[in-house]
From TrEMBL:
This is Phospholipase A2. It is an enzyme of class 3 (hydrolase). The keyword Secreted applies. It comes from Zeugodacus cucurbitae (Melon fruit fly). The keyword Hydrolase applies. The gene is PA2_0.
Length: 183
């Protein structure tokens, strides 16, 4: 190989490493962000559901897909009381992501709902969603540092924080846990 070919190969490798940040395709949020339109309601849903995905295809609130239990979880999640929409600000927090960021209580309810179903469909959806979505927001004492991490395949997330209870509560981002199967 000549020097030009070596340069091109190195450039391609550097571009690939920079694009994926050494993360698995299944856990790399950027891959999923690029694959879907950025409009709030795309009408794209997970097959077998009418509520799981960006937007919904339901005729009305009671219209559910054949994966009824999972779809019920997604419908409830879609109706979260506080959502930080893409490219918007709320409580001084900015969402530069292509997808909305949900309030942490809504994410916890969604996680618990999928885990309670405990079938392959719900567990797969949970793994994909919680593997690609990284953060949620809540009003809590200021974070000092992470005390405990949960390890994923290529990255880790904080699941226990040291907080400063001497300070007033503030709105801030928290890591979401990776999905785990009900045991």
């Amino acid at each position: 190989m000549n020097r030009f070919q070596n340069y091109i190969i190195i450039l391609l490798l550097a571009t690939a490493v920079g694009a994926f940040h050494e993360e698995s395709v299944f856990e790399d949020e950027d891959i999923y962000n690029q694959a879907l339109p950025t409009v709030p309601s795309t009408g794209i849903t997970v097959p077998g559901t009418k509520w799981c995905g960006p937007g919904n295809t339901a005729a009305d609130y009671n219209d559910l897909g054949i994966q009824r239990e999972t779809d019920t979880c997604c419908r409830q999640h879609d109706h979260c009381e506080e959502i930080l929409e893409s490219k918007q600000s709320l409580y001084g927090l900015n969402n530069s992501d292509l997808f909305p960021i949900m309030k942490c209580t809504c994410e916890q309810i969604f996680l618990n709902c999928l885990q309670s179903i405990d079938n392959m469909f719900a567990n797969t959806l949970g793994r994909v969603y919680f593997g690609t979505r990284k953060k949620c927001f809540a009003n809590g004492y200021p974070i000092v540092r992470c005390k405990q991490h949960q390890n994923g395949t290529y990255r880790q997330r904080c699941i226990l924080y040291e907080v400063d209870k001497q300070q007033p509560k503030i709105w801030q981002f928290y890591d979401m846990p990776f999905y785990s199967y009900k045991r």
